Amino acid sequence: MLNVIDEYTRECLVIQVARNLKAGDVEACLADLFCSRGIPEYIRSDNGSEFTAKSVRKWLNELGAKPLFIEPGSPWENGYVESFNGKLGDELLKREIFYTLQEAKILIEHWRKEYNQIRPHSGLGYKPPAPEATIPPTLATSMLPTLSLALT
């Protein structure tokens, strides 16, 4: 799974589920997000090969997004996504058996929406990060978040 978290809002923007994910999958996922959300100033991730690939680094550089790689063995440097991964594991992955990839995609997406729109977050005053609402386009484009990425 490729988990993408907006560090500013704590919203989980996407959980891409696949049997394996490569650099091209990361680029495609981020390209979709960039089209709908704008290009962030920074992208924080671990040093996995799918994030450090020359093609990904070159592509991000051309777009003006700067990569922030955490030190190997230092998951606390990517705390938002690590916290998210723990919650995803405790609240869903340790409780479900997925018999097909399609079933996993559906259940994980359902959990992601609940996490964003319903589940209270203590760091946000016990409010969800993305309750059903709209943001005026001028405000949405003025915020350039830092995204955190991780494979679980």
Structure summary:
The protein is an alpha/beta fold and 152 residues long. The protein has helices at 23-37, 49-52, 54-63, 79-93, 101-117, 137-142, and strands at residues 2-6, 12-16, 42-45, 66-69, 146-151. The protein starts with a strand and ends with a strand.
How are the elements arranged and paired?
Elements: E1 2-6, E2 12-16, H1 23-37, E3 42-45, H2 49-52, H3 54-63, E4 66-69, H4 79-93, H5 101-117, H6 137-142, E5 146-151
What does this structure look like?
By secondary structure, the protein is of the alpha/beta class. The chain has one domain: Ribonuclease H-like superfamily/Ribonuclease H (Nucleotidyltransferase, domain 5), CATH 3.30.420. It is built from six helices and five strands. The protein has helices at residues 23-37, 49-52, 54-63, 79-93, 101-117, 137-142; strands at residues 2-6, 12-16, 42-45, 66-69, 146-151. It has a five-stranded mixed beta sheet with strand order 2-1-5-3-4, sandwiched between helices. It is globular.
